[in-house]
Amino acid sequence: MPQFARFAVMLSVVGAAIAGRNLAGDCENEILTELPSPDGRLIAVVFERDCGATTDFSTQVSVLPKASRLPDQGGNVFVADTNHGAVPPGPGGGPEVEVIWSDRATLMIRHRSEARVFKSERRVKGVTVVYGELSSAGN
Description:
Blueprint: H1 3-18, E1 28-36, E2 42-50, E3 58-65, E4 78-81, E5 97-103, E6 106-111, E7 116-120, E8 123-124, E9 127-133
Parallel strand pairs: 6-9
Antiparallel strand pairs: 1-2, 2-3, 3-4, 4-7, 5-6, 8-9
């Protein structure tokens, strides 16, 4: 490998490490908010998932038993990203979402229609999930 090419590869690796991103694809979850269900049995966790330099930040939602910790994996209910900037980033870098328990067995998730949605389950852990649109003004 020519000297210049080796230097460029090394510079890329160092740059990624400095930027706090890794090239191995390891993912990290950062909890943005937790919302207990009205009966206290479950919790809706909204979190940002960062999987490194080659992926966009995403906003994800999981429904878990109240005493559980968020596993190191993707959301079991909802996953979306900003669709290459079509939606402004929210607090965690992914698209803003609004999560509301309508009752003990119904969770509403609102998001911007322009977000790129990868997962939108309709039923998880005995909870019916209803989706709605979040306007650009957050309403």
